[in-house]
Amino acid sequence: MKILSFIFLCIFGWFMHSPFSIVESTVQWSAGGRMESGIAESYTLKLVANYGSDKLNINDLWIDSSYFEAHPYKQNKDLSFGNTWEKGDTLYIKAVKRSYPDGKGELKDFVKPGKALPFKYSGAALIGYTLKGKKKYFVVEKFKKLPKVYNP
Questions:
Q1: How many C-beta atoms surround the C-beta of residue 3 within 10 A?
Q2: 69's torsion region: left (phi>0), alpha (psi -120 to 50) or beta?
């Protein structure tokens, strides 16, 4: 029995690759100088792809229960940005939660309704991706908080 479990561990544990690895995940809170500017929480995910864009498609992002369309991009050598990548490229995904004051001066979230959570997860965010035609999910454990920014 031990030998059989060791063989399964070798096959499924060592030869299964994650589609990407998270290098850094950050969140930064910012506020405008005027009340009408509102506040924003900017989320940035920096990851390294283990598959090219022909096999891996990252398209969904949930932060808490708020849905964002994910549009991963990479920076090319000529400092332009591209939506296609190769294995080993560094990708970025950005999302912003905005809150604006209503007529009474209370802040209201400006997040458009989107897809419902596919399942309950424990962590800071959930990334939905398609790998070789199969829909899968990846949980981001936490975001590193950057210093607050107060704009003039």
A1: 7
A2: beta
- Judging by DSSP bridges, how do beta strands 134-140 and 66-69 pair with one another? unpaired
Question: 140 Cβ partners below 8 Å, 6+ apart?
Answer: 22, 25, 45, 123, 124, 125, 126, 127
User: Helical H runs in 10-101?
Assistant: none
Handedness of CA 121, 125, 129, 131 (dihedral sign): negative
Q: Whose structure tokens read 């506040």?
A: 39
Question: What number of other Cβ atoms are within 10 A of residue 20's Cβ?
Answer: 23
* Pairwise CA distance, residues 24 & 20, whole Å: 12
> For residues 144 and 46, what is the distance between their CA atoms, to the nearest angstrom?
12
The predicted-structure confidence for 38-89, as pLDDT tens digits, reads as follows 888 999 999 999 999 999 999 999 998 889 999 999 998 999 999 999 999 9
- How many Cα atoms occupy the beta-carbon half-sphere of 111 within 13 Å? 20
Please state whether 5 falls in left (phi above 0), alpha (psi between -120 and 50) or beta. alpha
How far, in Å, CA of 99 to CA of 123, rounded?
23
pLDDT per residue as tens digits for the range 122-145: 999 999 999 988 999 999 999 999
Query: What six digits make up the tokens of 92?
Result: 């970025």
